[in-house]
Amino acid sequence: MNSSKKAVVLVSGGLDSTTVLALAREQGYECYSLSFDYGQRHRAELFAAERVSKTLGDVEHKVVRLNLDSIGGSALTDENIAVPEEASEGIPVTYVPARNTVFLSIALGWAEVLGAQDIFIGVNAVDYSGYPDCRPAFIDAFQQLANVATQVGVEGGRYEIHTPLMDLGKDDIVKLGARLGVDYSQTVSCYQATDDGLACGVCDACRLRREGFVNAGLEDVTRYAN
C-alpha cells in the first residue's frame, strides 16, 4: 500500500459509512476514520463506529465531541421531538441542521494536518430521507470551498470529497458491502437504538435498511429489539 495515499473517512457506525470505509480500504487508502459525539440520542452508533473501524483496519479512529444538542432542532438531538415511525414527505424532523457541513469542515481540518487530500463520506441521493446536505449540489459546493479555504488549496493542491454511494440504492449498497466482506451485524443505523445497539425496526433508517437487505436478496443481520 502507498503510505502517502491517505484519506479521512467519516464513519458513523451505520451501514452506509461502514461500506464506504471498506471501499476506501479496498482502493488502497490508509484510512483515518472520524466520528462525532454530537449529542445524538442514538449513542450506540459511536460504539459501532469504533467496532467497524477496528475490524476494517483503519490507521486511527478519532471521535470529536460537539454539542449540536445545545441548538436542538432535530429529533436526533432533542428528546422533546419524537422520532417519526412512518415515512414523511419533505425534509423530516430527523434532519440535523448543518450537520454534514460541520462534519466535513472538521474532516477537512484533520485532512490538512495529516497531509491527506481525500475525504470520504457516505451521503446518498437515492435513499437519503430528504436531507439537503446529502445532495450532489452540496458536495460540489463544499469541495469548492475546501479548495479556497485551506493552505493546501492556496498552494496549488486539491481536495476531493468522495461520495461513492451517491447514486446507489440501499440494495446496491448492501450488495457492495457483501462483496467487500462487511459484517453488517456490527453496524447500527437506527435513530432510536438501545444502548446495546438494538434497532427499533420502525424508524425511517430501519425501514430503508431493511428494504435494502430484502431487495438485495440477502439476510437482514440487523439486531432488533423486538
Characterization of this structure:
Belongs to the QueC family. Keywords: ATP-binding, Ligase, Metal-binding, Nucleotide-binding, Queuosine biosynthesis, Zinc. Its cofactor is Zn(2+). ATP binds at residues 11-21. Zn(2+) binds at residues 190, 200, 203, 206. With 226 residues, the chain is α/β, with parallel strands linked by helices. It has one domain (6-216): Rossmann fold (3-Layer(aba) Sandwich). 35% of the residues lie in helices and 11% in strands. The chain contains seven helices and five strands, in the order βαβαβαβααβαα. It has a five-stranded parallel beta sheet, with helices on both faces. The longest helix has 16 residues, at 99-114. The radius of gyration is 17 Å and the shape is globular. The model has no long low-confidence stretch (mean pLDDT 93).
Properties at a glance:
226 residues; Rossmann fold; alpha/beta; 5-stranded parallel sheet
Summarize the entry for a quick read.
With 226 residues, this protein is of the alpha/beta class. It has seven helices and five strands; from the N terminus they run E-H-E-H-E-H-E-H-H-E-H-H.
